[in-house]
Design goal:
The protein has 414 residues and is an alpha+beta fold. The protein has 15 helices and 11 strands. The two termini are 29 Å apart.
């Protein structure tokens, strides 16, 4: 305890020098913790997306039949399969086919959509690269959208082929002062007029913003097909709450769609994303390890700084060491004093570094939408243990040098 007090008082006696010595440790620890948090957060995001994709089984038409008759297209994160140049006229998918297929046991619902990129304008305001989604009557009840102003799409809108539109919250704020102010206003989408009937919020909006999408407005799929010359159904999704059924139910849904459509060439398929997700996880893990190792170099540099300043400290305090030895201090006491000082210096730097990583994380979360940095207890513990080890490794030589001093020689030095 006495050695700890000596070490702390020595550090406090030279605050600026101690802080400058800690900078290497602070930067190294904060870098490693932030990088590990990023890697862990990306891994969690992949798992979250995989769970979400397993609840939403997407069925699509492929001009090439699956070789093993599984109605499944294998997907890799590194290679694309099933992209051979084969021209087959795809069937014009009918919602009645999808509705009939959705009667299979285990299916909790379905929706169909189409989409196109548009530029939205209101008076002198404009939002480019907005992805206009056209959904059928079951779409809004199937997705995670929360109406915050106005109303949802209704059956009457589909029967009347109404030119109505829903804006996401960010879009409403960009074109109008507030979500409430957007209601019943007429906006233009590539020259076609739409009346705003509601404003919604959704986690998907923030993710889309990260990829440069201007917004995610929603209207009826019939309106998108009529105004923008696209198919009324270009995306088919079946909802499954019990994800354990997904591996077997997906191919069965594709088989049923193929059977109902009566196609002779090509078939409806689902994508097996298991291998792709596994590869992405491995890539993230490898990248995190490599970048953490590079960041760890700064810890080594910080350790050499600690060793250097401790050697200087030993030289400056030679007379103090001699006095302590003269009044009975043993070599082990001197060794402990300087070793504890080096470790304390590194641990303090590590604690500041962890605090800095939290600050970086909060700033990151504020400016990067749709992504949350998660700090694990393991990364923080590893960072603090590493900083302690650096203190021992790089502080031992100066501490041993101090303990080996001859008391008479030490006292005779000025």
């Amino acid at each position: 305890m006495q050695n700890l007090k000596f070490a702390f008082s020595s550090i406090m006696a030279h605050k600026m020098r101690s802080f400058l010595t800690m900078i290497g440790i602070i930067i190294g620890v904060s870098s490693v913790v932030v990088i590990m948090a990023l890697g862990d957060s990306m891994s969690r995001q992949v798992n979250k997306n995989m769970t979400k994709s397993q609840k939403n089984i997407q069925v699509f038409f492929s001009p090439i039949k699956s070789k093993d008759g599984s109605f499944t297209q294998k997907q890799s994160a590194l290679t694309l399969s099933g992209k051979e140049d084969v021209h087959v006229e795809p069937p014009k998918t009918q919602e009645s086919w999808v509705k009939e297929t959705a009667k299979l046991k285990g299916v909790d619902g379905y929706y169909v959509t189409n989409s196109t990129n548009v530029t939205l304008t209101y008076k002198d305001k404009k939002v480019e690269r907005a992805s206009l989604t056209g959904g059928n009557m079951t779409y809004m009840s199937a997705v995670e959208n929360k109406i915050i102003a106005g109303r949802d799409l209704r059956e009457q809108d589909y029967r009347d082929f109404a030119s109505v539109i829903l804006l996401d919250e960010e879009l409403a704020k960009s074109l109008f002062d507030s979500p409430q102010a957007a209601l019943n206003q007429i906006i233009s989408a590539n020259g076609y007029s739409y009346r705003v009937i509601g404003v919604y919020s959704s986690p998907a909006v923030k993710s889309a913003k990260m990829f440069g999408v201007g917004g995610l407005p929603i209207t009826t799929n019939a309106s998108v097909a009529a105004n923008f010359n696209v198919e009324e159904i270009s995306n088919i999704v079946f909802r499954v709450n019990d994800t354990s059924l997904t591996p077997t139910l997906g191919p069965e849904l594709a088989r049923k769609m193929t059977e109902i459509a009566g196609v002779q060439q090509g078939e409806y398929q689902v994508v097996d994303e298991t291998a792709a997700f596994a590869e992405v996880q491995q890539i993230f893990g490898f990248m995190t390890a490599i970048i953490s190792a590079i960041a760890g170099i700064s810890l080594f540099v910080g350790g050499t700084g600690v060793m250097n300043i401790m050697l200087v400290s030993v030289t400056e305090r030679t007379k103090e060491i001699g006095i302590r030895m003269a009044i009975g201090a043993r070599q082990s006491n001197i060794l402990q004093q300087f070793l504890i000082e080096a470790v304390l210096l590194c641990v303090m730097g590590g604690i500041i570094g962890v605090g800095l990583s939290f600050v970086i994380g909060s700033v990151f979360d504020k400016f990067v939408q749709g992504f949350e940095m998660v700090f694990s207890n393991a990364s923080i513990v590893v960072a603090l243990l590493t900083s302690s080890f650096i203190g021992i490794a790089f502080g031992y030589m100066p501490a041993r040098s101090a303990s080996k001093l001859n008391p008479i020689d030490a006292l005779s030095r000025e």
